[in-house]
Design brief:
binds manganese (II) ion; 428 residues; Creatine Amidinohydrolase, Chain A, domain 1; three-stranded antiparallel β-sheet; 12 strands; homodimer; disordered N terminus; Creatine Amidinohydrolase; alpha/beta
């Protein structure tokens, strides 16, 4: 790699492997690893790739499938199909990988030409790709492996989206948006939360051709709206909807590897209660002001603080918080109502990579800001979600209202009986 | 364990762990490991359990969740909730696991009381649970671990279903069956295969409350019907349906961990062509005869052979094969048209465990029979799918028709231009 970008070397990448459910032969539908998807767009499992430097020549390695594969899985595609379909310079079989990498490395300056591999900590999960998908079997004995240079470069390449990427993302967002509208039209009291999920998935798959979702559907109605990641196996969208519920639906499909992420909040009765309206307007106003303020050069943390400012202004007017606005902001009162970050980079992963890299602003240690998945300064080509929210979460309100809490003076006791309401949307 | 079933010891079991997509924080909806689901029905991830012998006293170990979990994932359920909900004798935290296991082992005859763990080869996948979900962290230093006795016993417990299990399985099969009907009503030329998948998933989720599918939907229309496991990431149900197509839809939902597995074949035009009818009738007749013949004491391989006999009889009448029926059966000609096994045990896994255990008939090495996922003698309480089929697969027909092939004398050359047709159904 090197500063000039003309160094010799070989970039070695491993695609996702087919996985099974525990010890069974149950295979979930394969989804390519995101870096591999970004670089090659390959949908098939168990591939590898190498990019030779400085030429940039790319070789895709595909598994050699036994002839009976054709009976079970369909026509075995020839290397030439892969070459043409994915636009790589050459296609070989995985069993030729070590020799090819060795040849590519050896043909430069034998003992000093490095093999660059992807290794670094994903700042959302804490995981390292080099541990999850080890590349040992692709590395010829005695090679020099550089596991430090590539990660930041590869992540940075995913941060700014190309025009084509933005077009695919617009499509995914459009499908999700239409699906949300259709759910909103169908939702009524008496239904179960998972039926809203079913309606959403159907629209995305049937009308949009989206087989994958960007994340598990969160269909949180009534009190469930106060659980940020509701919808998981322990709380599987199973509550029955009441006429008086607000629905908070956070759902987004994936199309051709690219994610969308949209949340809609609406009252099931079609009419906001006075309380619901206060909160809804606070969040909507936050979102509008943030969308107006976002531009290259603006630090993302400033947008998060703007959300707190707007929300607290509304809550203050409604008598749900009290005291001087600047003092409340100073005391971080916004965290009690919005414990999550304003939004995140989005792309091939819903929480896309590049949020925190060695050359970008560090993660804050202030509650709430700490949860921001990036503190970067906005640049043209970045795509971020804008998801302001306002929640009434017992686990936060109770300690905040307790004797001795620094938050206590700013809160009004009635705040605890508020229904859980929130509104969130996605934009780029 | 031991023959009398009164031995001392502790059975140590590990539940499924939350997994992530590669190095990202993308979490698919958690699905419990099947043995753990069978024994405890626990839906939550990252649990362990111990059963003390000979008393049978059960203890569930749940993860100790940090207080902020409540903000993101909802109310933290108390141990008493788990105790009551899952009917175990005691609930502790996972960080108390080693000590509890040590205590239970030590309280018997210290140096000789074994810890029994699940380890054995799943005969469908070739994988071993002890490798996939290692139990090392649950085993106190110096313990005697018995990794051989438990697997066969635990698998055998899953082979014969209780009345309650059968009831849940009937429900899952009923939901899948209704969903198939609804797909059949909606399917028409011009649609895409994935739209049939979307319709099926919608019905199962919206009307049946089934969030998981037992396996990836196979929506194989026209020539895709000849690909047994069509629908995977490399062939994602994306063909457009023609008026002249047969649809072969192999789809089944899961309900409360229990699988269903149903295949329907029908012509999109609502009218079989003469060719389509021949094949459809052959398969339907196979299925009827097999359902009539199935009873305790019958070897499953005999049912597979009955399928070949019935199918070849029909093909012979239609002039697609020629020669003496017994000679054809002897020459294994059925394999060319039905390369897969007749059906399989079904339960918490679609391909359920217990097909081949040390005390059951060995796997055949004859083509076709070799693919049977069990060669057991039928017993009351077993649930198996009955999925006869008849395919026209180039990868099998071409070599079978080639000069020198032992199959050649029985085949009629036109067989190769046959459309791919098949019919399969599920029963218990
Ligand atoms: Mn989001
Ligand atoms: Mn099956």
């Amino acid at each position: 790699m090197g500063a000039a970008g003309h160094a010799d070397g070989v970039i070695l990448l491993r695609g996702g492997a087919e996985v099974y459910r525990y010890d069974s032969d149950h295979e979930p539908v394969f989804r390519q690893e995101s870096y591999f998807a970004h670089l090659f767009g390959v949908k098939e499992p168990d591939c590898w790739a190498m990019i030779e430097l400085p030429s940039g020549r790319s070789t895709l390695f595909i598994p050699k499938l036994a002839p009976e594969y054709a009976i079970w899985m369909g026509e075995i595609k020839a290397p030439s199909w892969f070459e043409q379909h994915y636009g790589v310079d050459a296609v070989l079989f995985v069993n030729e990988l070590q020799a090819a990498v060795g040849g590519a490395v050896g043909s430069a300056t034998p003992s000093q030409t490095p093999i660059y591999i992807l290794s670094g900590t994903n700042s959302d999960s804490g995981l390292d790709l080099a541990t999850v998908l080890p590349i040992t079997e692709g590395v010829p004995a005695g090679s020099i492996v550089d596991s430090r240079s590539l990660y930041t470069v590869a992540a940075e390449c995913r941060v700014r989206k190309s025009t084509e990427e933005v077009e695919v993302m617009r499509y995914a967002a459009w499908v999700s948006s239409c699906a949300h509208s259709s759910v909103m039209r169908e939702a009524r009291a008496g239904m179960l939360e998972y039926q809203l999920e079913a309606l959403f998935l159907f629209h995305c798959a049937f009308h949009g051709g989206c087989r994958h979702q960007a994340y598990t559907c969160i269909c949180a109605c009534g009190p469930d709206g106060a659980v940020l990641h509701y919808g998981h196996a322990g709380a599987p969208n199973e509550r029955q909807l009441l006429e008086t519920d607000m629905a908070l639906l956070d759902m987004g499909c994936e199309y051709q590897f690219y994610a969308s992420d949209i949340t809609c909040s609406f009252p099931l009765s079609d009419e906001f209660s006075a309380d619901q309206r206060v909160v809804y307007e606070a969040v909507l106003d936050s979102q509008r002001q943030i969308l107006n303020a976002m531009r290259p050069g603006v630090p993302w943390s400033d947008m998060h603080r703007l959300m707190w400012r707007v929300t607290l202004t509304h809550l203050s007017k409604a008598g749900l918080v009290r005291g001087d606005l600047e003092a409340m902001l100073e005391a971080n009162v916004g965290y009690i109502f919005t414990p999550h970050g304003l939004g995140h980079l989005i792309g091939i992963d819903t929480h896309d990579v590049g949020g925190y890299l060695p050359h970008t602003p560090k993660r804050s240690d202030v509650n709430g800001l700490k949860r921001l998945r990036t503190a970067r300064v906005l640049e043209a080509g970045m795509v971020l979600t804008v998801e302001p929210g306002c929640y009434f979460i017992d686990a936060l309100l109770e300690p905040a209202l307790a004797e001795g809490s620094a938050y206590r003076q700013y809160l009004v006791p009635e705040v605890e009986v508020y229904d859980s309401l929130s509104s969130v949307q996605q934009d780029d």
